[in-house]
Amino acid sequence: MQQKLRGTDFYHKNVPIQLQAIGFGGEIFEQDVIVSDQYSTVDFVTDFEVKRIVFNGSNKLNQARMAEDVFIEDSGNAVFARTGARFSVDEVEEPFLARVEHIWASPDQAIIAGGFEISDQHYWRVAGEIPSDNTIELRLPYKGGSIYDLDNGLTEDEDSVLLFYRPDASALWAPLPEAKKTKIIPNDGNGLLTLDFLMPGEYTIGKGDVSTVDVDVWSNNDVQIYPNPSSEGFYVYLDEKSLGDVSIRLLNVQGNPIVNSTFERSTSYTYLPTNNLVPGPYFVELINQKTGEKIVKMITVIQ
Description:
By secondary structure, the protein is mainly beta. It has 3 domains: about 1-60, no CATH class; about 65-205, Sandwich (Chondroitinase Ac, Chain A, domain 3); about 220-300, Sandwich (Immunoglobulin-like), CATH 2.60.40. The chain contains no helices and 23 strands. The protein has strands spanning about 15-25, 30-35, 50-55, 60, 65-70, 75-80, 85-90, 95-105, 115-120, 125-130, 135-145, 160-165, 175, 180-185, 190-195, 200-205, 225, 235-240, 245-250, 255-265, 270-275, 280-290, 295-300. The strands form 5 sheets. Strands 4, 5, 8, 9, 10, 12, 13 and 16 form an 8-stranded antiparallel sheet that branches. It has a 5-stranded antiparallel sheet with strand order 6-7-11-15-14, with no helix packed on it. The chain is globular and about 65 Å long.
């Protein structure tokens, strides 16, 4: 366990924490523990396989974190009011539990590759039994109009505001240029960022220049990538109306190519194996060789 700081230079000692281990079948194991300093180790034993661990899950505000669990059974909007997050759900095949945490502490990396900058004030964590083939929209707010706002310093130029993602704290942050931006009042530093595919992991607000990544020239609806995230590989599907061969490059978060190939249009899909890659975010760049138009989509490799 790691303790993070906000508004102090000293780590707390002898802090009571409630630990919850949740199993694949909904089993719950609870244990109260005491932690101190930046890092602590906790040992516990369960009689079931653990899918995820929650700290202070029953508390609404604790340890510089707002958190909320929502059981999603039907289509519509799922509002995580304490965190500012919202899901827009088209359909639900099986009900599932989703959790959003809004953490008011630095997400570890204030400056990342490519000249991008991310918040050093807060980030969100999305977890739960989220279907891997979902069509759930995630909406997160950015707020920087006042010097007291968490995103102040990142939103003076709203055109440069971006949503960033990493699957977990061991991975690098990467921008999500596909996230749609809604300005509440133009140039007031406040708005919304909407992603059309929900991925478990961590999100934050940042800024930077993504002019080299063209995501809207060639319609995103012409390209689908499944499953995402994945540990073994990804299928890339192209709509039949997208005529001509397509060149494909797999890029790391620094924009360096890892795989180059050509998608010959004798079939409607191709497969990209990724089982030899380090877990984290990557970009799939597709160029229509007939028109020269380009589209970029983000994928996430997991263990």
